[in-house]
Design a protein that fits this description.
It is a single chain. The protein is an all-alpha fold. It contains 17 helices and no strands.
Length: 328
Amino acid sequence: VDEALAELDRVSRVAPLRLLALFFKGQAYETKGQVDEACRHYSEALKGDSDLPRVRLRVRMLGCRPAQVQGGTTCDEVVAGAERLYNSMMFREALERLRAGTGQCTDEPKALLLRGKAELMLGEIDQALSALKAVVESKGDRGTVVEAMLYTSLSKYVLSYLSPGRDKELGEVPSTARLAEEGLRQVARPFLAGLGSLLRFLALYDSGKRAEAERLAEEASGKEVEGLPSSLLYLMQAYVSLGKADFEGAVRHVNEALRRLKADLVDYDLDLPLFVLLKDLIHVAKARILFEMLAEDEAFAELEKVSGLNAVRLLAAQYNPLLRWDEA
């Protein structure tokens, strides 16, 4: 990688090739895990031409800011640096950046939210819930607080698979997810609001309240829930079909959910960690359907598609304890 960077540095001095070289240098720094350097080179490329689709995509995926900060001493700078690491799936490094930050950042709601999200991705559910609870009880801005409520619901849903008191954990999800959903709609974050609706549905479905879950799915299909992202709606419909033993419909809907999620990545400007988590959640859903169909070989193959990069691996391991991933 270092030799490639040296060659790209030479090429970047040739005007016609400069923007392309900056893009490839950004990719090389991403490979080395140097997110700030990657962002700086992508930003330089966009200064030369602001309409470079591949560069703009990498900037969005990494969560690059218009002006990159080297190091960072204020709380905002620390959080911005940690967020870039989080958006590039470097969750442990994001936590280290937050811990190495300034003292006044420790209890800052945005820092706590990012910490909770990173800990959830790493599967450290109890720690995540502690950080997210502190955000909900804080005087943070409305958007930060309701997002923390959403990730609290998601954490509790994952925890329900691991806890002996599963009914208790599932029982707490619908009310928290509903409050999060309402708040997220008010702050114009429609995809996250839709995720709140999906979590309500899943908690009802998994706790045996199938009729309530079906009514929620019907509402989501109609005018009562405006603008529910199609990928989440199709995932609900897959479970409704599964509950009715309509296996063909369930497989069709879950495949469509996966296809629509790729479009939602762009349409709703999703961050990469959330996209990968939902993609994994859909693979687990499809495996559940295949197990119900007694297609065990196909189900196990579907579970192997789970990335292992977030807490959904804990759900997948409940269906196949032999699954192994590299340490996140």
